[in-house]
Amino acid sequence: MEIETTNARNAHADYYGNHVKIAVDGKTPNGESIDLIYAHMLAVTVSVGQHLNVGDPVGLSDNTGNSTTEHVHFQSEYRGGAQTCPFYFAHFKYPIVFNPTGTLQVGRVIRVTAPSTPIRTDRFDSSSQITTAYSNQLYFCSYPKRGYYQVFIPNNTSCRSGWIRATEAEEVFAGTVIQALPDNAAFTQLGQLASKYAILSGANDTNNQIGQIVFGGGRFVADQITNGYYRIPLPGASATWGWVKPTARMVVYPQLTNPNLNLATLPNNNFPIRESFSSVGKSMFGRPKFNRSVVNTFSPASPGGDGKALFVTDATNAGDGTSESVLVGKPWHKNYYVQCDVYFNYRPSYLVGDGGYERYGIFLRDDGFAGLDTTFEGAGNAYALLWDADDGRLRAAKLVDGAVTDFLPTITYVTGSGWHTMRIEARGNKIKYLLDGQVLIEATDSTFASGQFGIGYSMHFTGYPAGRGAYFDNFVADTLDVTPPRFGVSLQADGKLHLLLSGDVGSTSAVERATSLSLLDWSFYTNIVNSNATVEFLDETNVPARFYRARRLQ
Questions:
Q1: Where is the M23ase beta-sheet core domain (predicted)?
Q2: Which of 19, 129, 334, 382 could lock onto 118 through a cystine, CB 3.0 to 4.6 A?
């Protein structure tokens, strides 16, 4: 093992900065000895000669060495030789990897939900179609971006991977993942295997060959295992599955995720999503772009608030960092609204005189990088409602690679400091922007069909002034799809009603009851705040007849 700990925070004198190099005990499937490197760290928590096991912490990520923002640089290399990619040499025991708290995920399995959907060369509807995937086929996805999943393709000689629209699929923890290893040579993305894996029409050696696994390093998801063969999807002209028999050059992952990880505890990011930021300190809400935001006491309190609010700042992003965001939701979220109270801290440029301005607001249908109006570390691609602190200009905007297009027909200003409620609604190609309950504009645009959402901040100064940032409170997001819940009712021995409410419960937030079907007879019964699950409750009142209904409250 090798360690380096002499770099100060944000020192950039050498390449790796503070780092740890770990000598792996075992060898690769090709028999090489390898080392793992964690670079650009703030602090190292291990020592030379210490033996590490999977899951042991090695230090804290940061921004030392050849780095421009806080992150962890993880790489593997042949001992004394060249770098190589760890994913293709099966260093990981589980193909879907989470950090210890289960808040960040590497790798995922998706199931196609549409009857059929194109697999494209890139993550745009206009990108060329490579082939077609079909309902219930399982694919291994490396990552989502701009409403698409990048998946491995087994049987295409030109494209090792392609993109499936997220609205046509769902993430699952199902199937058995198999990984075809590359040849015993330097890895290249489009290096075809010297000996390709045969894909047969059935789970028997005598069946016909109907395809091939062409490239090494890809991961494929089997939904059936028979006679030593694994059934994987073959995208193409029709819904087809084929059978592969693993060899010594193929890794079979017995589990998708670490069995010690309770999947039920993971954030599901399903609707409704509500957060009032009531606990002072580091916030674990959503996914930060760079660093966790913090909840501070703040005056004046937001409308109906408790005097605490989320402070979002880029101040801890040294180097080129100029923005920060908090990202929530799933890549396939399509028809929904996002709303948040935002404190407008008006700082007129003619009074401040520091040559810059702050911009912040909310966004939805983001491409997954939440770059807001910046291009650094993933450009912003989303619909956003933005406000500038130097002149009070409000923008009901579309962001494309960080470029801002304002839909408002005339320049609009909101001057003065104070809390305001920002809201964006997206339904199909209709994007509605509201401020304090008043519609600013409803735009028609089809650039972003789905994506995640959140809150963001960016600074536009020549330097890095202290104290920069923005305050947010009372965040809420929910679906705009009409998805009626379903009731199941049984009468208990004591006369009480036992009710089960199932379906997309996240689209409903209240149950009402009545003793007749008169429109005037309905009264509030109970709140339902749950998502895609079954809600069980009892009606405590014994009455001869009663009616129930569920509806969404916005």
A1: 15-80
A2: 129
